[in-house]
Amino acid sequence: MTQDLPPSGGYSEVRYRRYLPKRGPSGLVIIGGVAAIMTFGFYRVAQGNLERRELKRENLWSRIHLIPLLTAESDRDMYRRTIAAKNREAEIMKDVKDWKAGESVYNNTKYFTPPNYVAVPEDN
């Protein structure tokens, strides 16, 4: 019986190492890309914060400038309602002797003081 022996000169080299092509960017390139995207994102957030702050300031100043108009409108409405209530009271209490419409039924002004109105004529 004969024994199996390697061929003369030996077997050819066994290639056990993986020869894979490089796939994708390196870690340094990925980290640089992420840093660039984050920097751009933070820049956009900062710009948005500035814009939001400016809009909030503009909204505040518009409210400040509208306060006199809204106060005057509220005063006119309150005056109209007070006159209507006084006329209603005069109509309801017309049969009661010595009743003065709009006059307080209390003897002091501790709990309620009716508002005073100044009627300003409109310029035509």
Plain-language structure description:
This protein is mainly alpha-helical and 124 residues long. The protein has one helix and no strands. The model has no long low-confidence stretch (mean pLDDT 88).
Helix/strand-derived class? mainly alpha
Q: Which segments are poorly predicted (pLDDT under 50) over 5 or more consecutive residues?
A: none
Head-to-tail CA distance between termini = 135 Å
Morphology: rod-shaped
Order of helices and strands: H
Approximately how much helix is present in the residues? 40-55%
Mean pLDDT: 88
> Main β-sheet, in a few words?
none
Which strand-content bin applies to the residues? under 5%
The number of distinct helices, counting runs of at least 4 residues, comes to 1
Q: Give the number of DSSP strands.
A: 0
Kindly provide the radius of gyration, computed on alpha-carbon positions and rounded to a whole number of angstroms. Answer: 45 Å
Protein name: NADH dehydrogenase [ubiquinone] 1 alpha subcomplex subunit 13
Keywords: Electron transport, Membrane, Mitochondrion, Mitochondrion inner membrane, Respiratory chain, Transmembrane, Transmembrane helix, Transport
Subcellular location: Mitochondrion inner membrane
Main location: mitochondrion
